[in-house]
Specification:
Blueprint lengths: L1 H17 L3 H12 L4 H10 L12 H20 L2 E5 L9 E5 L5 E6 L16 H10 L4 E6 L10 H9 L1 E5 H9 L11 H4 L1 H6 L12 H12 L4 H33 L3 H12 L1 H14 L5
Parallel strand pairs: 3-4, 4-5
Antiparallel strand pairs: 1-2, 2-3
Helix pairs in contact: 1-2, 1-4, 2-4, 3-4, 3-7, 7-11
Amino acid sequence: MERVFCAIKSVYSDLNAKKAKFENVAEKLQEIVFSFTREETLSAIQSVGVIPERFGRDSTEEKLFAKTSDLVLARALTFLGFSVEVCRRRGDFADVVAESNRYGYRLTADAKSFRLSRTAKNQKDYKVTALNSWRINVGADFAALVAPYFQYPTNESQIYRQALEANVCLASWETLFLLLKNNVEESDDLNLSRYWTFSNDLAARVSVAESKRSFLNESAATLCEIVGLPTEKWSETLAIFRAVVEKQGADEIERLTEEIEKIKALTREEAIEALIEKTKYRENIKTIRAYLKKIGAVV
């Protein structure tokens, strides 16, 4: 995944230096990610669920990272036997639209990544009901959300009821890893559509009172059954990702602690200048002046 981080940093520099359009930079990232081998994709899947704290909130780097998560999802689906399209349209469309090469059904999927410092788990962040609308908009048969397993609500949540009502598959980066790691691919003997429609099947078996409970492990167990893997493989996958997240968390804490020490070492003047730089107020003033000059106003 470090290769992708370096690419993001490089293309971000291009944005600033050459004023390149975001879409053009995203195309460069797509070339990189779509050239990934299976092993490189597995490595990316382990990291792409966590947004690095060093990428500022709502920054271009964060947006490029979000685009990268779309691309990693799309690349992973190609190994499962899908033709994929990464959507560039804004508005009511999911990140990825895929078509089964073997069975011809269409799947729309949305990739999610979160910061480890994220606290509230707002149902709007998952866009479950929106996924169902996006599925209809592109004429897809199924819809899936791909988010970090450990960032899903652990107990009850409205998103689980929404998934059951809208027939949205709550997948994860971990389930994708499980499939790719075990060389799963659709064939004459394997149709993954039963997994994508798991929420609909479960909805017929649970009561309204139970509809808000987490069913992620039940879904994963069904996936193992569908593809012919022992459920221990799911436990092993979770252990791998738990260790990865633990390492990511330790690295983030170390880096943030170092940043705190650097700030504490600043002089008063340096601290003021750093704060002004962080606010980007000077850039805003420059932009406003350019606009006023453009319309003939006195600056």
